[in-house]
């Protein structure tokens, strides 16, 4: 069983990671709610609070999947973890790398 202190430490660490991703907290929250099968909310400081108990490994895995899908460039030579921008082009979400200019469209659903 994971102690609440470990979970709090992980969430604090996760917030630092989320800030470095430069993504809207609401977008990350929606993704994590779907991945973890729970509900959450953002407080006035944009700190994510999720309902339930989770193993840190599961939270880390969900954050990694978010980064793989919405943050990290998939350009063969680039793979930049911090230089992509999420935007909507013609109604479709797109991840575009500021560094190599690679662009990919996200699946709907």
Automatic annotation (TrEMBL):
Q: Does the keyword Protein biosynthesis apply?
A: yes
Sorted alphabetically, which keywords does the UniProt record give?
A: Initiation factor, Protein biosynthesis
Q: Which GO terms describe its cellular component?
A: eukaryotic translation initiation factor 2 complex
Family matches, as InterPro entries: IF2/IF5 (IPR045196), Transl_init_fac_IF2/IF5_dom (IPR002735), Transl_init_fac_IF2/IF5_N (IPR016189)
Q: Which residues form the Translation initiation factor IF2/IF5 domain?
A: 2-103
Please name the PANTHER family in this protein's record: EUKARYOTIC TRANSLATION INITIATION FACTOR (PTHR23001), EUKARYOTIC TRANSLATION INITIATION FACTOR 2 SUBUNIT 2 (PTHR23001:SF3)
Q: What is this protein called?
A: Translation initiation factor IF2/IF5
Origin species: Artemisia annua
């Amino acid at each position: 069983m994971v102690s609440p202190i470990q979970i709090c430490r992980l969430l604090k660490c996760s917030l630092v990671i989320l800030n470095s991703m430069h993504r809207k907290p609401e977008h990350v929250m929606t993704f994590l709610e779907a991945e973890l099968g729970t509900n959450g909310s953002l407080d006035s400081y944009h700190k994510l609070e999720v309902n339930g108990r989770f193993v840190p490994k599961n939270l880390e895995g969900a954050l990694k999947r978010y980064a793989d899908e919405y943050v990290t460039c998939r350009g063969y030579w680039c793979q930049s973890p911090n230089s992509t921008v999420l935007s909507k082009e013609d109604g479709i979400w797109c991840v575009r790398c500021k560094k190599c200019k690679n662009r990919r469209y996200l699946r709907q659903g």
